[in-house]
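Apologies for my clumsy wording, but are you able to produce some protein sequence, whichever is easiest, and the tokens describing how it folds?
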Amino acid sequence: MYYNLFGFLNTIKTQRVIAANYGGNVTQSWVANVVAVELMTPLTGTKVRYVASDELTGQETAQILGKAIAVPDLKWVEISDQQRLETLEKAGINKTIAAGLVQMSANQRTPAFYEDYQRHHPKLGKIKMVDFASDFARIFSKQ
């Protein structure tokens, strides 16, 4: 989700980087408000619905956000799983949840992570990263 990028505000402000435990060359899907519909729908049985608004590499994401916040040299850098875990725990995230987030991100380093998504590729939504970037810039300027 686009809003997950707010979790990187501190490192963007202090180090001019988005530091994740998967590389900037990994193409990932981003999603906006449509995910809220799925999160609010009661779950009955097994259901898989892929939703995505944009697909970008980490470096492309950093470039778009960097332009919006006037940090043109913003980079996406890969850190170790341990470094990511420590960062999340320092931010006050529960250890079990932090470990799950680290594992989820680590999985993005493997091609198998996106196989089913690619087989059932969704129609991309209308809200693109460049649209979200203005919201990101507004929050960034208040930090």
Observations:
- The domain at 2-142 is CATH 3.40.50.720 (Rossmann fold).
- The chain has a mean pLDDT of 92.
